[in-house]
Amino acid sequence: MPEIMIPLTCDVKELKYVKDIVVKTADEEIAAAGVKLEYKVGTMIEIPRAAVTADEIAPEADFFCFGTNDLTQMTYGFSRDDASKFMPAYFDRKILEANPFVKLDQVGVGSLMKTCIALSKPVNKNIHYGICGEHGGDPSSVEFCHKIGLDYVSCSPFRVPIARLAAAQAAIADR
Length: 175
Hints:
By secondary structure, this protein is an alpha/beta fold. Helices cover 50% and strands 13% of the residues. A five-stranded parallel sheet has the order 1-2-3-4-5.
């Protein structure tokens, strides 16, 4: 089933506003084509505010996709572009063990993801979850996503084989 993802920047009212336009347009185009097509409409969870207000957002969404690159950037307050200038010093001094833009920060960003799921599931039992971004190709990040109940990960094409293997290993380990 096709999915239409709406980037969310601040509030459920924003999602409702954009969703109304998207649904009206999609329905008109589907009708004009003379076909039957079901689709889902969901949103990105890219900022901490969206994660902690997920109970307000979830009734309007069929799915949440965690934009983990942006969520990491917003959680740390690091610009991805600027972080490369100081991260080597952070690694040398053991301030950071791994690049949080490559390996998902399960303590900080992961906590926001878990909070989002815990808040949203009770108000929308049919909602499903995924991530998009380079974290989807990191084995430890894929395993974490599996453990917290995500349905899918996406990543750049060259990382797909790694992501598929990591997902299979996580599913087997879960048995």
